[in-house]
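Quick check before the chapter quiz. The format below is the same one you will see on the exam, so make sure you can read both the input and the output lines.
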Amino acid sequence: MNLAWYDVVGLLGTLLILIAYFLLQARRLSGNGVAYPVLNLFGAAGVLVSLLGTFNLSVFLLETAWILVSAYGIWTSMRQRRIDGESHQSGGGK
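Here is the expected output.
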């Protein structure tokens, strides 16, 4: 079996998504943290790269949505960290 470079990138992307999901289920990763959506974002991007070989519209739409949702998760997690840091520095508001 001959794999092109984009196939290898796609397989690595798939592995990243599966590893992230396994770590979430094993409670080794938080769904509210940054690591989970980052792994998913890079995984989905890898799968998108694999479409350079053979385009598939449904996979393209799924992985694009996966990237957008992951980016939103990263943004909300980072925003929450900033808010938590600001409230911690100001004495917690209690």
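If your answer matched, good. The chain has a mean pLDDT of 93.
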